[in-house]
C-alpha cells in the first residue's frame, strides 16, 4: 500500500473528479440501502400486515426521521388501500423502481467521473516516466534492458491504473454501501446484526491469507514480460545478422522459453486471483445461511422480528455481501498491482547522480581550451583511462587513434558528460565539467557517430533536431554543406520524405550526411566525430569526408578514427593504448620518426 500513496500524488491534478466520484458514491450508498428498505411496504401489502394509519404524521426533527418516514408511508399506503389494493401495490413498486433507478444513475455518474481520474493518472504517469527516462544518466541504461523499461511504461502503468480504481472502490463506494446498510440493519435488529458481524472478521482473514503471495507472483510475471520484450527488441534490431548467421531457430527457442515461463507464472497468478470470487461467494452463502437460521428463529419462534422486515433485512445483507466481495477483489488487485507500482517507482525515484548542482554555470561558447588533467575512469571494475592528460585548444582539430578498447570513445563520452570521471579533472575554459549545466554543455557540443542515429520522421525534422526553430532555407544550407542536398532533392517528397525507422530507406552514406547536416545546423563550438566514416564504402567516404571537413572549419574538433587517411590534416594526432598516451604530433612529425602511428599508416596502405 505504501507504493500507492506515492502514486496517488498523480491524482491531485484531477481531485475535482475524485470529489465528484465520492459525492455520487455517497448518494449511491444511501439509495442502495433505501431501495431494500422500500421493499418492506410491498411485502406487508402482499402478506396483509400493513399497519393502518389514517392520521398524517407530524415531523418532530431529524432524530425521529425513521419513525416519521415509516408512518408517512403507512399513511399513504392506507389511503391507497382504501381505494384499491392494486393502486397501493403499484405505488410501492413505482417507489422501488425509482430508488433503484436513482441508485444506478448515481453509480454511473460516480464511474463516469472516476474515468477522467484513472485515464488522467495513466497519462501523467506515463509522461513522467518517459521524461524521467530521458533525463537519467547513460550508465542507467547500460544496467537496464530496453524491453524491461518498455514493459514498465506500458503494461506496469496499465496495471497500476486498474489497481488505482480498485483502491477508490475499496475506500469510498463499497465501505459507504456497507456502512449505510449496517445502519439500517441495526435499526431493524441490533441482536441479529451483531450476530452477523461476528462472521465478517473470519471471512476477511480467509481472504487475506489467499492474497499474500499475489505480489510476489505478479512481480515474476512483469519481470518475465520485460524479458521477452527485450528479446523481441534485440531480434528486430539485429534481424539481418540473425538471418545471415542462420540463427532464427536459436532466437525462436529463447523466445519460446521466455513465453513458457510467462505462461507458467501467469497461470499461477490468475488461478490464485480467480480463487477470490468463489471463496468470497461461498463465504457469502455461509453468512446468508446463518442469517436464515438465526433470523428465522426470531420470526417463527421468538416472533421478535416482523416477517416483511426480515425479508428486507436479507436484501440488505446481500447488499453488504456484494461490496464485501468487491473489496476482496480490490484487495487482490492491489496485491497484484503492488509489484507494478514498485517497478514504476524504481524509475521515478532513481537518483540522478549527475544532476546539475545549484552552483552550476552556463558556458555559451568555448573561449580557450578543453583540458583533461590526470583523468582516470573505469566501467564498473574495468579501468579504461589512467592519469590521462590532454589539452585541446580552441579551434584545434585533435585526432585520437589506437586499438579498440583503448579509451577513445570513453574520452568523447566524458566530454559529453555521459559519465562522471573517477579521478582527476576535466575542465572547459577552466570550469570543471561537473559544474557546467548539462543543457549548456550539450548546446556547446555536436556529435557525429559511426552509427547514424536517425528517427522515423521527415528529413527536415531529423536535420532540425538540434535547432527546431530553423527555417527550411537554413536546413537546405546545412544540407548543401554536408553534400546531402543533391540526393534529398531527388526524393519524391524532398525534405518532407519520411526516412523510416533508423533511416532504413537511405543508404549508409546518405544517413551519415544527414547526421552531418544535423550537426552543421546546430552550429556547435565543440565537434565530436566518433569514427564517422568507418562504416562507409570508398565512394561514400569521399563525399562524407568532404562534408566533415566543411563541418570542422573554425571549430574545436575531437576526431576518433580508424581510417587514418581521414585525419592527416589534424592539428594534433594522439595515439592511445590501454588508456594512456604513447605519442603525439602532426601527421608529418609522426611519419618522420619510427612511430606506432607510422606502422599503422603503413599497415592500412597495404
How would you explain this protein's 3D organization?
It is a single chain. The chain is an alpha/beta fold. It folds into two domains: about 1-350, ABC transporter transmembrane region fold (Up-down Bundle), CATH 1.20.1560; about 370-605, 3-Layer(aba) Sandwich (Rossmann fold), CATH 3.40.50.300. It is built from 23 helices and ten strands. It has helices at about 1-5, 15-35, 40-45, 65-85, 85-135, 140-145, 145-190, 190-195, 200-210, 215-235, 240-245, 250-275, 275-300, 305-350, 410-415, 440-445, 460-465, 470-480, 485-490, 510-520, 540-550, 585-590, 595-605; strands at about 370-380, 380-395, 395-400, 425-430, 430, 445-450, 525-530, 555-560, 570-575, 580-585. A six-stranded mixed sheet has the order 6-7-8-3-9-10, with helices on both faces. The longest helix is centred in the first third of the chain and has 51 residues, at about 85-135. It is elongated. The mean pLDDT is about 75.
Amino acid at each position: 500500500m505504501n507504493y500507492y500513496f506515492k502514486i496517488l500524488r498523480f491524482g491531485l491534478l484531477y481531485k475535482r473528479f475524485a470529489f465528484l466520484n465520492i459525492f455520487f458514491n455517497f448518494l449511491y450508498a444511501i439509495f442502495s440501502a433505501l431501495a431494500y428498505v422500500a421493499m418492506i411496504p410491498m411485502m406487508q401489502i402482499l402478506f396483509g400486515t400493513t399497519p393502518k394509519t389514517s392520521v398524517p404524521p407530524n415531523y418532530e426533527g431529524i432524530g425521529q426521521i425513521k419513525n416519521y418516514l415509516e408512518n408517512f408511508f403507512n399513511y399513504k399506503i392506507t389511503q391507497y388501500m382504501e381505494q384499491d389494493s392494486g393502486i397501493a401495490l403499484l405505488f410501492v413498486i413505482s417507489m422501488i423502481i425509482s430508488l433503484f433507478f436513482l441508485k444506478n444513475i448515481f453509480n454511473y455518474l460516480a464511474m463516469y467521473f472516476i474515468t477522467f481520474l484513472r485515464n488522467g493518472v495513466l497519462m501523467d504517469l506515463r509522461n513522467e516516466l518517459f521524461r524521467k527516462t530521458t533525463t537519467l544518466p547513460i550508465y542507467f541504461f547500460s544496467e537496464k534492458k530496453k524491453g524491461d523499461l518498455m514493459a514498465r511504461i506500458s503494461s506496469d502503468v496499465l496495471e497500476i491504473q486498474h489497481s488505482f480504481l480498485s483502491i477508490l472502490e475499496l475506500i469510498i463506494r463499497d465501505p459507504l454501501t456497507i456502512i449505510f446498510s449496517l445502519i439500517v440493519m441495526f435499526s431493524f435488529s441490533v441482536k441479529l446484526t451483531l450476530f452477523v458481524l461476528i462472521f465478517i472478521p473470519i471471512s476477511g482473514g480467509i481472504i487475506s491469507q489467499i492474497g499474500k503471495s499475489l505480489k510476489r507472483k505478479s512481480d515474476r510475471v512483469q519481470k518475465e514480460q520485460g524479458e521477452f520484450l527485450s528479446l523481441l527488441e534485440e531480434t528486430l534490431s539485429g534481424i539481418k545478422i540473425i538471418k545471415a548467421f542462420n540463427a532464427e531457430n536459436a532466437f525462436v527457442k529463447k523466445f519460446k522459453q521466455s513465453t513458457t515461463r510467462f505462461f507458467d507464472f501467469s497461470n499461477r497468478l490468475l488461478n490464485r486471483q480467480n480463487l477470490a470470487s468463489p471463496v468470497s461467494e461461498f463465504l457469502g452463502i455461509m453468512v446468508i445461511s446463518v442469517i436464515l437460521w438465526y433470523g428465522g428463529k426470531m420470526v417463527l419462534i421468538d416472533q421478535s422480528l416482523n416477517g416483511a422486515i426480515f425479508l428486507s433485512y436479507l436484501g440488505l445483507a446481500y447488499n453488504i455481501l456484494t461490496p464485501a466481495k468487491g473489496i476482496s477483489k480490490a484487495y487482490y488487485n492491489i496485491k497484484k498491482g503492488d509489484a507494478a507500482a514498485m517497478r514504476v517507482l524504481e524509475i521515478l525515484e532513481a537518483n540522478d547522480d549527475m544532476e546539475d548542482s545549484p552552483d552550476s554555470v552556463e558556458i555559451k561558447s568555448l573561449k580557450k581550451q578543453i583540458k583533461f588533467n590526470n583523468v582516470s575512469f573505469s566501467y564498473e571494475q574495468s579501468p579504461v583511462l589512467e592519469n590521462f592528460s590532454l589539452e585541446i585548444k580552441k579551434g584545434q582539430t585533435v585526432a585520437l587513434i589506437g586499438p579498440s578498447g583503448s579509451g577513445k570513445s570513453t574520452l568523447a563520452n566524458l566530454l559529453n558528460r555521459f559519465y562522471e570521471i573517477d579521478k582527476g579533472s576535466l575542465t572547459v575554459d577552466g570550469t570543471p565539467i561537473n559544474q557546467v549545466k548539462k543543457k549548456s554543455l550539450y548546446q556547446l557540443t555536436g556529435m557525429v557517430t559511426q552509427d547514424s542515429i536517425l528517427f522515423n520522421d521527415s528529413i527536415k525534422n531529423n536535420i532540425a533536431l538540434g535547432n527546431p526553430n530553423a527555417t527550411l532555407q537554413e536546413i537546405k544550407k546545412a544540407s548543401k554543406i554536408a553534400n546531402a542536398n543533391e540526393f534529398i532533392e531527388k526524393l519524391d517528397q524532398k525534405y518532407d520524405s519520411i526516412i523510416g525507422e533508423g533511416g532504413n530507406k537511405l543508404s549508409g552514406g546518405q544517413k551519415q550526411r544527414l547526421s552531418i547536416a544535423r550537426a552543421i545546423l546546430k552550429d556547435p563550438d565543440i565537434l565530436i566525430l566518433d569514427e564517422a566514416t568507418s562504416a562507409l564504402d570508398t565512394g561514400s567516404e569521399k563525399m562524407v569526408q568532404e562534408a566533415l571537413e566543411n563541418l570542422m572549419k573554425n571549430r574545436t574538433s575531437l576526431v576518433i578514427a580508424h581510417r587514418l587517411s581521414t585525419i592527416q590534416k589534424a592539428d594534433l594526432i594522439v595515439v592511445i593504448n590501454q588508456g594512456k598516451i604513447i605519442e603525439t604530433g602532426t601527421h608529418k612529425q609522426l611519419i618522420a620518426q619510427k612511430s606506432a602511428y607510422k606502422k599503422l599508416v603503413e599497415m592500412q596502405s597495404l
